[in-house]
Amino acid sequence: MRHLVMDWGESFDVGDPVIDHEHRMLLDLFRSLAEPEAPTDTATLRARLDELVALACQHFDHEDALMRRLHYPGIREHQEEHDALLEQLNKYIALLDEAPDPPPVSGIVEFVGLWVLDHIDREDRKLSAFLAGTIGLAVPA
Ligand SMILES: [Fe+2]
Ligand SMILES: [Fe+2]
User: Fold this and answer.
1) Average predicted confidence (pLDDT) for the chain
2) Family, per the entry (predicted)?
3) pLDDT tens-place string over residues 2-32
4) How is domain 16-28+45-131 classified at the CATH fold level?
């Protein structure tokens, strides 16, 4: 996974400058968690997850606004993924507040990595294709 993330280039850009910038910020935050010398103490992890939730909320608001502006037919499924991702991050934060020793570092890093890569590569890429006019999605009944 780390290899994939480090190779992440412009092919992941969705074509909206604000959203692309935020994706790179999300990636940077993930890197700060995943790099081999990253701190693994509970307080630092907790702070990084707080940053991640704040950035993700801001980013999701921008994607929501874009999807509404485009009348994007996949908006409901996309928003459900955002909500599920935030819910899981908040579960990890609650878990860290219980001060487990040792904290579940690898589980958190893996989840965040999959979250960043999978969601952007799948759902955000669909949004990107719609934005570019290269696909049309069926309007849900
Ligand atoms: Fe995104
Ligand atoms: Fe998204």
Assistant:
1) 86
2) Belongs to the hemerythrin family.
3) 444 555 666 678 888 889 899 999 988 888 8
4) Four Helix Bundle (Hemerythrin (Met), subunit A) (1.20.120)
